Amino acid sequence: MGSVLICLAALVTVDGLVSSSAAWLATPPPPLPVLPIPSASQLRWQRREIIMFFHFGMNTFTDSEWGTGSEDPSLFRPASLNASQWMDAAQAAGASLAILVAKHHDGFCLWPSAYTAHSVRASPFRGDVVREFTDAARARGIDAGIYLSPWDRHDARYGKETAYNEYYEAQLRELLTGYGSVSEIWFDGAKGKNATNMTYHFSEWFQTVRQLQPSTNIFSDAGPDVRWVGDEKGFAGTTCWSTVNRSMITIGEAGIETYLNQGDPRGTDWVPPECDVSIRPGWFWHRNETAKPLLQLLEIYYNSVGRNCVLLLNAPPNATGLVADADVARLREFRAALATIFNTDLAAGSVARASSDRGPRFEARNVLDGRDDTFWAPTADDGRRNGYWIELRRCSPERAFNVVRIQEHVALGQRVERHQVFVDGVPVANGTTVGHKRLHRLAQPVAGRTVRVWVAAAGRGPPLLSAVGLHLDPFVAAGTV
């Protein structure tokens, strides 16, 4: 009798093992990444979507965009500088990162650098703008970034390769060791046509950043972490890959704008684009300029964030040291308009189905759960020739929409090469790349029972979509854009 009980117990144990194993086998792993893929810091950066730029310096007081470098430091005298008020502007736009121009091309430094007399130390202000900026950002829970211009029209060492590169490197170390965490650092490639010939040691500078602040995202024409989008309008290409070949890019070289704007589907480096644009016509504050109208800012948003980019929006403080009230109000209006458009998802409550799915954890319904870490994944063979599709059957087909939002799970690479959107079988939008986010504005609001997104990713593995959303933009609906 005892031996029978032992045998029964053994059978139960084996049966349990078999059941557990079967359950484990029923949950397939995610598909392999399509290389290259973003780093953790690049993913965090991409999900910010809107970040802020603050151009403030000698040009603010001389009514210039590019200073000569010969300006007297006594001109720099902001009477009411308040970096906390700048953070009000950043928060008004919904930004989680703010970047300060610590030194522009005129060479005037907004911190009391030990390596030059041409700084706030020699001005009536005598404070440390970088310190005030980083402290104010930290107090508001906003991450700080720094812009340090390689082109310097003031310093006598400029043009002397070793001497100037040592000077620049020393200032880079000051900024990266004296002001806490820096989330992004900007290396501008701009230089005047008649500028002194100068070889920059970008490789050394980038390695210094990696040594001192390994999680900082480095911006330049060629990255290594974030690239320029190729224009200052805030517009990415209608085709926009996060990948490029860095070896094909020379920082500051003319003729690379189209490549930067579109990216490269065969790129070996993940270097997503950042769309830099000012809220005003100029980068620095000028008394006779005003902020762009709301509808123009919305156009910029659709053509930057809506095309797989991060929008870097500049709000220049004025000569008193404050962002103009009208500019803050415009930023607040901009954020409110985005909330009006995107806070309501007219796809909510829909039933999702797809051409196939990879199994549990990768079902079509994942595109509706509002999470970045879940996604729909079709089987590898499905749609290899004719494309893949995912369809939403709406619970309120009478509710019209005019914006379609599609997002890829880019943590495992960018895959979609072409896509098309159908409403009740009628095509309403089409495009090429998707990336982190693709937004389609329709010419007219449409209603319908089914919304199908067809995607092709030939040779790049099955597409992985994390979201499909539907929204109503009343500004478009009113015919005002």
From TrEMBL:
* InterPro entries from the UniProt entry: Galactose-bd-like_sf (IPR008979), GH (IPR017853), Glyco_hydro_29 (IPR000933), Glyco_hydro_29_N (IPR057739)
- Example GO biological process: glycoside catabolic process
Which UniProt keywords are given for this protein, alphabetically ordered?
Answer: Glycosidase, Hydrolase, Signal
Give the Gene Ontology MF terms in alphabetical order. alpha-L-fucosidase activity
Q: Which Pfam families match?
A: Alpha_L_fucos (PF01120)
At the top of the EC hierarchy, this enzyme's class is: hydrolase
Question: What domain of life does the native source organism fall in?
Answer: Eukaryota
Q: What is this protein called?
A: alpha-L-fucosidase
Q: Which organism is it from?
A: Eleusine coracana subsp. coracana
